[in-house]
Amino acid sequence: MVDVIWADRFGREKGYVGKVAGDFTIGTENTFALKVESSAGISQDCYLMIDGTEYGGIVDGVEIDTSADYVTVSGRTWHGLLASRLVVPDAGQLHHTVSGDLNAVLGELVQRLGLWERMSAEESASGMSVSAWKFSRASADMDAYTGIRAMLRSAGAKLRIRYDSALRKAVLSAVPRGDYTSDGLDGERVDFILRRTRPVNHLHCLGTGEGLERVVVDLYADRAGNVSKTQTIAGMALREEVFESSSAEAAELEEDGIKRLKEMQEEMSECGLTGADDGRYDIDDIVGGTSVEHGESVVTYVAQKIASVTSRGITYETKTAMEV
């Protein structure tokens, strides 16, 4: 049995939901939809969560079917609350720059985003840090969830969210990324889908300026996924794309372009873990698979988790990058 707690708009816990059925999706979409007993009185701005887990969030919508004895409540998960907030630099600044222990940085961001009423960060140090990490005003990925995950990955970390009923808050913390590439996921023991697609290997980066005065940086990836200014792939294997950041000078353009091209290398690999997941994987954990028979292997990361909740328990579905 799954104990789903519900709380009013002020976070005051009112008890457990009785019959419940539905899904929490995190990583992408970052929403939930649950059928609950109509007599519970759950309405917009209430909260639903499972204590000690990342599955929970705020109710944004209620669907009522007068012929049924339940209502369908939907909303943003804790992950979704971060995804629906923008990290906006101070007036006159192109970036919001952070440095220090990752948990301290998460705490500062929770305050900056105005989420402190229902969220907090782990008070103890994570032991991992960043130096002058930039959240850019010009980036298409200004949402806090995307930016925080990128920041944590740069330090070898991932975002962990756990609801703490004693605090009545979802607690954010930075923990090391799990690496499950040595778990023995090979085609002789576990069934999985492995797919590799040729990624973009030349990124033509355009920065500030106009016409011939425009800042241009060309970046290249080799067959191993390493990024530099040296082209090693040509001919029919060359795959090019434009990356534009219209306010970026050369140094910043190169930094952002390298980050994007590296992401493109990861995004073109897929290792589907259908049937191999018991719920232990977190978003951004590193996973991989090897087909001994075909001589192919892929290393990628977890991009989406779906937790399906019923009165009997929780089942999990995990998807990697490129599956979602």
Descriptive account of the structure:
With 324 residues, the chain is mainly beta. It has three domains: 5-77, no CATH class; 85-176, 3-Layer(bab) Sandwich (Phage tail protein beta-alpha-beta fold), CATH 3.55.50; 202-267. Helix content is 14%, strand content 40%. It has helices at residues 78-83, 102-112, 144-154, 250-267; strands at residues 5-7, 13-16, 20-26, 31-37, 47-49, 56-64, 70-77, 95-101, 119-121, 129-136, 157-164, 169-176, 193-196, 202-206, 216-221, 227-228, 240-244, 269-272, 286-291, 296-310, 313-320. The strands form five sheets. Strands 1, 2, 3, 4, 5, 6, 7, 19, 20 and 21 form a ten-stranded antiparallel beta sheet that branches. Strands 16-15-14-17 form a four-stranded mixed beta sheet, with helices on one face. It has a three-stranded mixed beta sheet with strand order 9-12-11. The radius of gyration is 22 Å and the shape is globular. The two termini are 29 Å apart.
